[in-house]
Amino acid sequence: MGKKPVKALDNISIDVEKGDFLSIIGPSGCGKTTILKIIAELIKPTKGKIIKPDDFEVGYVFQNSTLLKWRSIIDNIALPLEIKGMKKQEAYLKAEEVMNLVDLGEFKDSYPKDLSGGMRHRAAIARSLVYNPEILLMDEPFGALDEPTRLKLNVELNRIWIKTSKTVIFVTHNVSEAVFLSNKVAILSKRPANLKKIINIDLPKQRTLELLDSEKYIKQVLEMRKIFSQYAK
Hints:
The protein is an alpha/beta fold. It contains seven helices and six strands. The chain has helices spanning 32-39, 73-83, 88-101, 117-129, 147-164, 175-181, 215-231, and strands at 21-25, 58-61, 135-139, 167-171, 184-188, 195-200. The protein has a six-stranded mixed sheet, with helices on both faces.
């Protein structure tokens, strides 16, 4: 007998506007990653659909940086353009541009083993941006990092978001991170996940570490945790 099918999602409907930074939070195993995989067309939904233009490209940043250890950092970042058939010279010029965007320009000839965990994640972000996708999907990319590194990358990601005006959908289990990064947060229930609430975050678009001590930020984190705990049971 085959395994009984697992229903991951139920009645999910989210409108994402151009330039949004939407974080998705929910209990572990509720289907957050499944949503990203459906958007990226890595899996097909059994019901429903994603409404987007046919030529709409997405970049995907996984939980692990997934860099190829035998390729230099610039080789890793240029790889998507090589796959698309772009000429090497043009591909590497674009790779250098995004490496500078994520402050890795001086490490282009290094290898993944030579970089810290945070730097490898920045390289993974650069690789996802190199072909200029309309939307960036990020699946708990900083979850395994220590807090100081994660906070630093949160600030870096905010800077990149402002600089590129990309639409970002960011999966995290960290309520504080969701509030710090986003202009909207979608809260999901336990599996099968359904959308419980979308919260608009009222903070300045540019986020700095000083914001973490502000009364406004702390209040929104406490309110979000209260709502999240209500629906995570």
